[in-house]
Amino acid sequence: MEANIELRLLDYKLKIISIKKPSIHKLMFAIVKIAFTSKTKCSFFSFTETNDDYSIVVDHYGFQELKPFTNDDDIILSNSDWIPMHLSGEDLQRGISKIAKYLIIVCKRLQFLKAVMIYHY
After folding, report:
1. 5 and 91 Cβ atoms separated by less than 8 Å
2. 27-72: per-residue pLDDT in tens?
3. Cβ atoms of 91 and 7 closer than 8 Å
4. Contacts (Cβ under 8 Å, ≥6 apart) of 68
5. CB 27 within 8 A of CB 72
6. β pairing state of 83-89 and 75-77
7. DSSP symbol at 110
8. What pTM value is reported for the model?
9. Using CA atoms, how far apart are residues 98 and 24, in angstroms rounded to an integer?
10. HSE (side-chain half, CA atoms, 13 Å) at 49
11. CA 1 – CA 29 distance, rounded (Å)
């Protein structure tokens, strides 16, 4: 049976910021502005907590709003642009990690992307 999977590159270039937990207060004003108000041009925002830190994924506009508050050793800015993809289809039982592995290999061979993020619904 042939797999029916659709992959689309989304029209975003994203940045990732990693913040150690004790330093999150330095970015709170900008985070609240981006996440909860309409006074921003940022159209992509993701906030994730791990055991040691927080990760924020934003588009170019969000990155520009957060950048002035990132002059700390506990805040790490990514140098790479991430391009998100939308993965959908009937045959996703193979597992996202296996599909992602093959996509990253193909992208590396094509020297197409610096980094890849995959979203599926």
Report:
1. yes
2. 999 999 999 999 999 999 999 998 989 999 999 999 999 999 888 8
3. no
4. 30
5. no
6. unpaired
7. H
8. 0.70
9. 34
10. 4
11. 52
How many H-runs (helices) and E-runs (strands) does the chain carry? 3, 7
Torsion of CA 98, 102, 108, 110, to 10 degrees: -160
Q: Tell me if 16 sits within 8 A of 59, measured CB to CB.
A: no
Which residue is listed with tokens 């659709």?
6
List the one residue out of 102, 104, 105, 106 whose CA is nearest residue 115.
104
Chain position carrying tokens 């709170």: 28
Bridge partners for 16 per DSSP? 57
Identity of the residue numbered 107: C
User: Cα separation of 93 and 33, whole Å?
Assistant: 39
Q: How far is CA 62 from the centre of its chain?
A: 12
Distances (CA, A) of 107 to 67, 101, 114: 29, 10, 9
